[in-house]
Structures are given as structure tokens and as C-alpha cells.
Specification:
alpha/beta, seven-stranded mixed sheet, globular, about 210 residues, Rossmann fold
Amino acid sequence: MRTPQGYFSDTKPILLRLLDPRGLRVLDAGCGAGGNGALVKRAGAAEVVGVELDPAAAERARAQLDRVLTADLSELDPDDLGPEPFDAILAIDVLEHLVDPAAVLRGLVGRLKPGGVVVASIPNVAHVWVIANLLAQRWPQRERGIFDRTHLRFFARRDMERLLREAGLTVERVEPYFTRYRALKALSLALSLYVFRSYFARQYLLVGRKPI
């Protein structure tokens, strides 16, 4: 299957509202071409280690991150990450691509320091466009977005929170993500009348902390 141009290059500046990376050792799980890892490095992260399945994307990430492993997160040997635990883990637009995201997340949390955080971004299957398509008795197959044909697992907000809790994390923050473009975000909120904004959120960003 052909991967669309830019598929691995998406970045989310909102991450810096959820995580202060200064001085932290960060694992970017499913790092793509390294855009989000580079974002936290520029914001002061001490070290960013990436894991990426796609060899071409991993090679691009190596130009931006401190170290990148080309590996499937589902088959990753934790020893390959080194003996030192991480202060923070990014799981941005990756968990929905895994056969068993719960098992992978539990494994990642095992490499997290007590008191460390996981920041995850997960598509919202309860989006109004998904509901509209289901009412029309169809499920589109797209190259990216909510209907990405490579998604294996689907989550609404409560499912996402449960996923983090069952991995041993305390959910501290849940932020709806509409778009990086302010005008489109304002339009989404206006259409939702604000009351139904959860149905216009394309994704949710969650922060979970490992108990001390």
C-alpha cells in the first residue's frame, strides 16, 4: 500500500501545552519522521529516543532525534531502549495502528520513571462525520485521518481513558483536538454550538501519570 506524502511528518505544537520537556529524557513511540520529537527537543528535552516501524521515516527521524530504533512496537525488546528509564513517553497517533495497544502501552509504562507521564493522541471514533457515515451504512477507507485504512483499533473518549488507566496511569488531562488551524477550529466549535463539541473533536490528547 502506498503511503501518502507527509504521512509521517505531522506535528502537534499543542504537545508543548501538555508537557514541559525541559531536561527530560523522552521516548517518542511511533516517532514517524521525528517531527514531534524534534519539537520537544527544541523546547529543551535532554534526550529524545524514537521508535519507528517504517525504515524510510526512521531514517529521516535520525537526522532530528538523538537515537532511533527501526522496530515494531509490538515486538520491541525493552532492553534495546537501554537501562535508563524515561521521564516522558509520547504515543502520538500510533496506538490505533496496533493489534494490541493495551499490551504495548503497558510495556511502555514499564520503561517510565515513577511520576513520569505519557502523552497520547488518539482519533475520536465518536466524531460527527463517523456517525454520519454509519447512519449512511458505510465506512470509508482513506489514506489518513479518522478513516485511515491502517487503523486496527477504535476509541471514543472513555475508551481512551480506560486504556491509560489499565496501563497503570492516572489520567490527569484530556484535551479535545480539532485542528491546528484556528479558523477551522472556530468553525468546528461554532457548528457544535459548543455543547456538542466532543462530537467535533478529531482526536483527543491525554496525559497520564505513573504513580510514585
